[in-house]
Amino acid sequence: MSAADHAHDAHHEPGWVSKYIFPLDHKIIGMQYLFTGMFMALIGGFLVYAFRMQLAFPGIEVPFYGKVTPGDYNSLITNHGTIMVFWVAMPVLIAAFGNFLIPLMIGCDDMVFPRINRLSYQIFFISAVIILASFFVEGGGFGGAWTAYPPLSAKAEYSLTPLGSSMWLVAVALEFVAFLLGGINFITTAMNSRAPGMKMFDVPIVVWMIVIASILFMASVGPLIAGAVMMFMDQVIGTTFYDPSAGGDPVLWQHLFWFFGHPEVYVVLLPAMGIVAEIIAVFARKKLFAYKTILYTTFATGILSFFVWAHHQFIAGIDPRMANVFTVTTLLISIPIAEMLFIYIASLWGGSITLSTPMLWALAFIAEFLIGGVTGIFLGASGADVYFHDTYFVIAHFHYTFFPIAFIAVFAGLTHWFPKMFGRLMNETAGKIHFWGTIIPFNFIFIPLFVLGSAGQHRRIYNYQHFPELATTELQNLRVLATMALVTLIVFQIVFLTNFFWSIFFGPKAGENPWKGTTLEWVTASPPPHGNFKEMPTVYRGPYEYGVPGRDDDYWPQHLPNES
Amino acid sequence: MIESLVEPLSTYASDLDFLVNLVAWFTGIWLVLSEGVFFWLIWKYRAKEGVRSEYITGEEAHQKRWVTWPHYAVLVCDVFIIYFAVTVWVDIKQTLPPAEATVRIISQQWGWTFQHPGPDNKLDTKDDIRTTDELHVKVGTTYHYKLESLDVLHDFSVPVFRLKQDAIPGRVITGWFKATGTGEHDIQCAEICGIAHGMMGGRIFIETPEEHEKWMQSQSEGMVASKIDDKALSTTVAAVGVP
Lengths: 564, 243
Prior knowledge:
The complex is a heterodimer.
Chain A: H1 2-10, H2 16-20, H3 26-56, E1 61-62, E2 66-67, H4 70-106, H5 114-133, H6 156-159, H7 162-192, H8 205-236, H9 250-283, H10 291-304, H11 320-346, H12 357-380, H13 382-388, H14 392-422, H15 428-454, H16 473-506
Antiparallel strand pairs in A: 1-2
Chain B: H1 13-44, H2 61-94, E1 101-108, E2 111-116, E3 129-132, E4 134-138, E5 142-149, E6 154-158, E7 163-167, E8 173-178, E9 183-189, E10 202-207, H3 209-218, H4 224-239
Parallel strand pairs in B: 1-5, 4-10
Antiparallel strand pairs in B: 1-2, 2-3, 5-8, 6-7, 6-9, 9-10
């Protein structure tokens, strides 16, 4: 460790173990998060494969899994949700891109707190090991849904997973600690280490978004950690915080969970929106439309996101008058988000659009996220939510937001910054095959689920035979369609993984600035050396100076002095 | 939208369906418009040899109005939706029309017990009829339900009524419904409640007054039903392999 410190401080190339296993370099920590997140995505994908096969063909021996029992089913859906949100979306979008991009884009040599950064990943790694280990303990993994409502989650006699529930809780709490540490680092670094000349409004949108997401996370996670500690004590030493028979209240958890849970949606959404903004600017060769308005709508969204949580609890036994307040706040949040999307669309006006693989992903994000956005209105409107609550309509809605966030935006970001990360280009043809092989099946998975939800199909049911109105052939055909589409989508990920790993070693050399971008990460070598820049850059203008009249090039990088 | 998939069979069901259709129209129009403009711009401004992108900051008023006017229009739609959403909500959840009959609904891992008022139409008297997983109600009668849970959270959901309410241990939650058509339909538990959550279905029998009378008579042999019910419940438990 001391050797690593020394190496870092002096910017020598460190040895292999200290470079890749115990790194202080933000780029390597970002890669650790990225590869861990990719691995967890495979696990999360395998879980959904197993339970979707059970839904399409109830009772079969699922290939590579076996029979899905009711207990297995609950544990599969619970951990699919938990892993995809906390061990895929967050580490990849915030930690991997945040770590890799922030110092490069603001022009500094590393994070302000490299050791906290390393600790953040180490705690995250332990949390991932714990959640995976929970499948193999007695009673199996936790099966009380990713929202973990007590009393089911708080008492082993109800959940029948005595160890799984506690391990789930510990893993989630540790993951939160990891992201608190990482978030502190991102905020401090972006505030203090910007290159000379870079004013607040010269900071690229993606950096702003990751910083705002980290602030939202810090401000919302406290109550949930307190709630998790109380639940852990309920589980392990028999306290009764959530046990009504001894004066506790199970609904308390729901408030603590969703007070965090709704801002969390924006914690992962904002970095995704940031990635998409960067890519649209580059491949439309356009200055982003109304940069400051993007930030103001982001602030408005962030603040409002703290006042909408009870829309998850309309029918959960809260005072019905409260539902009206939360309907108003929930519908209001559609305004800044809609305006943000309008701005993104307006940014295309007057552009020169190249449909490269990253651009396809970025545009697909907008097209698909719009569907996720408008379907949320059905659920935010309290009257309609009485019907839609806990149906597959909800599942389809949030997958139309979360899939674009956790996968479409991530593929956009990975294909866009791959040349900077690994110094080589990915294959465009394979990239496009993977794009269409993902986007088309994605819609064939979730459009049927909108229909199933509208038909009243409720969630977390391993087999619909006990509900005659849902056990019809027509509805079963939709379930089979969704599952077939899912399997297709998963198969197409092989194209991506092959392209990704092949290109790391054998792709054509990328050079410093393959996309002719303006922001600072394109100034340095690909991949950037330890310490990032040979000569620390100075900033002279905003991040999106494309198509400036009177110049030979259609882009004007941030670091070039005015009289060049 | 949903009325074509699930029959509306309560007094508030068609109001809720109207609200859903209203939201579908508003959001549908926005979706088609935004996606239309979006794809049109991608087509119109595709890269062409020798054509450079324009330099537009989007900070000037005549440019910004292209995003501010639409967002005011979104606000107007929101106001409409809020008005109808709250109206439907208040009807289902916030008002309580006087009861013509009351039933008690007791949820537990993993089944329903329904306590019907019986021939005297009073709850908690000797002639109450207790059943498992079967609720019998009269069409056109305003019912209050008293929803309880014995262990974890459950949710009493009747899709044809458009009714859904969580059951919380330690509380009795009162609500209402009034059926507008007869038939036999699903009752769901719509809140995950443990490993046999997927088996916690019930049936609601909405009957004409005569049918309902006949059913009550068939039950009048006393409280035999409840004994059978306990056995039925333990069979369910055994079927999913709970120790």
